[in-house]
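Students often ask why inverse folding is considered easier than folding. One informal answer: many sequences map to the same fold, so there is more than one right answer. In these notes we will look at a single instance of the problem. The structure comes first.
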């Protein structure tokens, strides 16, 4: 299976924790035609502008093997993605606040970017963060990160693209459609 070009970005984001369109001329279908996609394990769902790729990869990390479930739809230089993984750690020993802070910081470091917004949020009964990151060459990342302390499991929904794209209604619709079970 061919990996998405964004997969290395996601892997680095996940390991460090120990994330589009909106332009009317984006070429995306109307939101009413978007496709609801649920991860193979049923934990994550979101509306995508088209049929995304689903990938599961296992990678080595300083804390052990990580199985990353990634769903990604790419359109030009923009991408909509969700991912989740459970850390091989004892939940009672996991610091959720530090994990969320690390995820936001790692996301910025991974793209050699700067965090512009980092807000604490809560949804689905889990603590989280809403982040906006600027990266070189005019790229931006807007995302939501959550951690289920019982796993501990990291969940992310992100849009990568131009500032106009990530500030647009398609990005908002995608992030608002993200759900965790």
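Output (designed amino acids):
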């Amino acid at each position: 299976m061919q990996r998405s070009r964004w997969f290395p970005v996601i892997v680095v984001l996940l390991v460090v924790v120990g994330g589009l369109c909106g332009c009317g001329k984006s070429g995306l279908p109307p939101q009413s035609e978007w496709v609801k996609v649920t991860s193979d394990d049923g934990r994550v769902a979101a509306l995508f502008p088209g049929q995304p790729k689903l990938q599961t990869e296992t990678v080595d990390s300083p804390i052990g093997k990580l199985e990353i479930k990634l769903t990604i739809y790419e359109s030009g230089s923009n991408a909509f993605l969700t991912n989740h993984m459970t850390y091989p750690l004892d939940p009672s020993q996991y610091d959720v606040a530090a994990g969320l802070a690390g995820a936001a910081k790692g996301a910025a470091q991974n793209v050699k970017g700067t965090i512009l917004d980092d807000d604490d949020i809560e949804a689905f009964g889990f603590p989280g963060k809403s982040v906006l990151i600027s990266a070189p060459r005019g790229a931006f990342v807007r995302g939501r990160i959550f951690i289920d302390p019982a796993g501990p499991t990291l969940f992310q929904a992100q849009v990568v693209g131009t500032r106009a794209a990530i500030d647009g209604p398609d990005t908002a619709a995608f992030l608002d459609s993200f759900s965790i079970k």
